[in-house]
Specification:
461 residues; 5 helices; 20 strands; 14-stranded antiparallel beta barrel; 8% helix; elongated; Porin; mainly beta
Length: 461
């Protein structure tokens, strides 16, 4: 019975390996990770907020909810930290070719952080209509990634032959103006327009320790800057059917990023593939340009068209003694429309995202929140990400402090980042596919402030 299960496992692994495993590391380096949420309450509620967000959080979720603000001025400042863990292992076999187990060969853990904030102004006294405007800044796409691998000999010596390294640092951030109006009671319409800025620095390196391996010394650097500052636009609508139930929709228009890429190569072997270039983009240097002590450098423009996003949201508030709110969001991202001038054959999948959140307000007005977020991967729909979140808040006279956290993990098959065949006496693996386990731990602290001693609309009885 055990042998039958083992045979089935090997068969499943072989099938998944043959089915073009997604190179998620490559995707992270070239297209980054979308920042899932920019405020603590939304994080705790699984990322929901299209219909039930506080007005101060409108810019990150739905600009139409701005009209729910009744204070003269309010704002927030949030800081989020992410701990990213990656464990790569390879399959190994016995002398008869039978699968034995997976052996972990590299583990990395890194911390990253970012900030978000906004300030809103109630213009109703000036306009005679419910009109609110706000300024905000928050990260949109993060490119942070750190990878360090020790290449060791097999057998009892366990000698270090080389270090394989990848470092990526930077983010794209948006500075935006949002506004919303309530033309008729219960109906709000809002828009957001922001300018995206940022830069990314990346390094990939093969650093030999042994003198016998200096012929494979290899170092790539890529500095990415924006040639133009793209504008990202979002439109939203919100309808409050009654004090308990609301529905909303939001549409994020596609935007294009034009970048200047300065790629620098220092290598003793120009035939090695470029880690920081797409698979179908040649390094572009001849052996004469990249001899033992020489360096090659090129500068190339790149255009990436990020896709549109559509979101629908519902929120319901119970009226019994157990004050609670339910939130549900559904988002659809048109990743198949994404284009990259460096990759003419780029083929991503449209995905849907399901978000659920529950917020319970205790009698002493301390909220407790839990949430869930589910989405397939754009690179391969056979893999999905599930995020579990929770949080609490503390309400004071003119400010509120919120704490939230979340956890997600993903197991996938991905191509080996660095070939073993580069390092004699190691032998090239017959199946250069890794089992990769990644985990993200999110934590966020937010301070929200409001004036006029008015309890925020989302908290009023």
């Amino acid at each position: 019975m055990f042998n039958m299960y083992k045979a089935l496992f090997v068969l499943m692994f072989a099938c998944s390996a043959l089915a073009q495993p997604p190179n998620l590391t490559d995707s992270k380096l070239h297209y980054g990770d979308w920042i899932k949420t920019v405020n603590a309450r939304s994080l705790a509620l699984g990322g929901t907020g299209i219909a039930g967000a506080y007005a101060v959080h409108a810019a990150g979720q739905n600009p139409a909810v701005l009209t729910g603000m009744e204070n003269e001025m309010e704002g927030f400042l949030a800081g989020m930290v992410t701990r990213y863990e990656e464990d790569r292992s390879y399959p190994y076999y016995d002398n008869f070719g039978g699968f034995v187990d997976f052996g972990s060969y590299v583990y990395n853990s890194s911390w990253y952080g970012n900030l978000a904030g906004a300030i809103n102004f109630n213009l109703t006294p000036l306009t005679g209509l419910q009109v609110v405007a706000g300024l905000s800044t928050n990260p949109v796409i993060g490119f942070n990634y750190d990878y360090v691998e020790e290449v060791r000999t097999t057998g009892f010596t366990d000698e270090i032959l080389a270090y394989n390294k990848i470092y990526s640092e930077g983010e794209l951030r948006i500075y935006s103006l949002s506004a919303a109006i309530e033309p008729v009671a219960g109906l709000s319409i809002g828009g957001q327009m922001g300018i995206i800025t940022g830069s990314i620095d990346q390094t990939a390196e093969i650093f030999p320790v042994s003198d016998d391996l200096q012929e494979i010394a290899h170092r790539e650097t890529r500095i990415i800057t924006l040639e133009k500052n793209p504008v990202k636009t979002t439109l939203g609508i919100h309808f409050q059917f009654d004090p308990q139930f609301a529905a909303a929709a939001v549409f994020g228009f596609p935007f294009t990023i034009n970048t200047k890429n300065i790629y620098r190569l220092e290598t003793n072997n120009p035939d090695l593939p470029g880690i920081l270039l797409p698979d179908n983009e040649p390094v572009g240097f001849t052996a004469a340009q990249t001899d033992y002590d020489s360096v090659g450098q090129i500068e190339k423009s790149r255009k990436i068209e990020y896709p549109a996003q559509l979101g629908l949201g519902l929120t319901y508030r119970f009226t019994n003694i157990l004050e609670a709110r339910l939130s549900a969001d559904f988002e659809y991202i048109f990743w198949s429309d994404m284009k990259d001038t460096w990759r003419s054959g780029l083929a991503l999948h449209d995905i849907y995202v399901i978000k659920l959140g529950v917020e319970h307000i205790f009698f002493d007005r301390i909220p407790f929140r839990v949430g869930f977020n589910y989405q397939p991967l754009k690179e391969n729909k056979n893999y999905t990400r599930s995020i579990f979140t929770l949080g609490i808040g503390l309400l004071f006279d003119q400010y509120q402090v919120d704490f939230s956290g979340g956890f997600e993990n993903l197991t996938s098959n991905q191509p080996d980042l660095f070939s073993n065949g580069l390092y004699p006496p190691l032998i090239e693996r017959t199946e250069p596919v890794d089992r990769v386990k990644t985990s993200n731990f999110y934590g966020m602290v937010e301070v929200r402030f409001f004036f006029n001693d008015i309890i925020p609309p989302a908290r009023k009885d």
